[in-house]
Amino acid sequence: MGSLGYSGLANMPPTRRAISSRDKTASGDMGGSLYIGYISASMSCFEPIGYVRHWYTDEEVKAKRAVDAVIEVLPQYEEGLRGIEEFSHVVVVAFLHKFRGRPLVVRPKRVAHAPEVGVFATDSPDRPNPIGITVVKLVKREGRTLYVEGVDLFNGTPVLDIKGFTPKRCPGGAVAPWWAD
Question: pTM for the full model?
Fold first, then answer.
């Protein structure tokens, strides 16, 4: 997988403005801080550390459920990547900038005849707080660019955090209902 060539990423202005699902340019870029409500002084602001980049349409991501991509980390956070290449997988925390609403009851779409369940029992992107967590395979690191496989996020999705994934995070004996794939 080659470089996606988003040379303008580092030149995005660090604006401080509210962001919504409609607040993006034609290319999907979203710059600056993400202000997500005002719960408390310590929970009112999230700053993206980078963005997911790939050439797949939203419909292709939904159909494939996992695509190859790069995570382009902003220059001021590159130092924070030191040692990340020693992990085979990383946890990506993202702001789901294209969420459509906040339903509390949903029907899982990928399984025929699935029951309606609470949104917290699913991986639906439409949640009260549009924050996504996904584990991806880290193929390689080149500077501030992470080449990853298994991404279920749309192009332009703001990345809030990246964590090295360790096998100790997998609890033994985990179970899920028949409709959870």
Answer: 0.73
